[in-house]
Amino acid sequence: MTTTEALVVELKARATSLGFDSFGIAPADARPDLPDKLNAALAAGWHGDMDWMAETAERRGSPTQLWPEARSVILLGINYGPQSDPLALLDEPSLGAISVYARNRDYHEIIKGKLKELAGLLARRSGAAVKVFVDTAPLMEKPLAEAAGLGWQGKHTVLVSRDFGSWLFLGAILTDADLPGDKPHAESCGSCTRCLDICPTKAFPAPFQLDARRCLAYLSVEHKGQIPLEFRVPMGNRIYGCDDCLAVCPWNKFASESREARLQARADLERPALADLVQLDDAGFRTFFAGSPVKRIGLSRFLRNVLIGIGNSGDAGFVPLVVARLGDENALVRGAAIWALRRLDPARAAEVSTTCLAAETDPDVAEEWTVDIA
């Protein structure tokens, strides 16, 4: 066994002890096709208002553009598979459905420290330079993870693993060391289209392509404006993210048969009541979602999502709580409250509309009183 091979064996063993479930290595230039694919998606506008994707396109397209000295990429995954079917919550409209990945501590915080420790081991043993990345940097982890043999990008564009289905958090270590690469994983979706068929907003123009502008995960988390009208009813009670395409992947059955997920959900984030959430003030929001990625979207966007969920509940018992948000200082919240009230109690909406319109200074919010919501 060569010195380099021995080092890789040691790195894999240490990765396992740190809690990583998957480990693979790819050459930094393993995916020369990525710049063209990225530029095509950007040209089609599929990134929505995530302007940072276009601004970092050149660096994002290749690890060697991000760091010219990079020679190898170590990709690591942590299984976060849920203990129960996350789609079952969609049938309980009084509750809020939070995406599985956001029901625990922010995964950036969970993974980054582990990556730094592993990268430190590599640097000490080899003298190589290293850089650590978890999602926030312009690095395309999913196709690189495919090149490193962790799995393949499914038709829903998420990485699919034979061992963990669609439930892997990914992290990456770039290094200037030349490490032996793993065999790339072949795409193994076959003729299955479950992930495409279940999408409530038809966000996939074609298999392996995602238009974020139609994706509820994007709209509820990244989108800063009001939820477009056509997507509000399909949003249901999804108040942060959307797991539909991940949850129906047939490969998930192997995740349930494999070792238990490393990350367990906070119990209070599994079945939160919309009635409690809509009453949160800023301090309460920050306290309740401390350590959770949900906190990053801020109270106003979160309440926007909660009010859409309430509007879809069909429960007129929510009306007093919705009316209480009609005077919110934030336009996003007021607009969503109007839509929810008009859905739940048209008569009450008509009763208060004149007074609210007289005080309204935002034209987009004012339009919520008259726009067709049928």
Which structural traits does this protein have?
374 residues; alpha+beta; 4-stranded antiparallel β-sheet; two-stranded parallel ribbon; 9% strand; elongated
Question: What would you say this structure looks like, in words?
Answer:
With 374 residues, the protein is an alpha+beta fold. It has two domains: 173 residues, no CATH class; 129 residues, no CATH class. 42% of the residues lie in helices and 9% in strands. It has 19 helices and eight strands. It has a four-stranded antiparallel beta sheet, with helices on both faces. The protein has a two-stranded parallel ribbon with strand order 3-8. β5 and β6 form a beta hairpin. α15 runs parallel beside α17 and α17 packs antiparallel against α18. The mean pLDDT is 92.
Helix content: 40-55%
Q: What's the tally of helices? A: 19
- Structural class label: alpha+beta
First-residue to last-residue Cα separation:
69 Å
Q: What best-fitting shape do the alpha-carbon axes yield?
A: elongated
Low-confidence stretches: none
Biggest sheet record? 4 strands, antiparallel
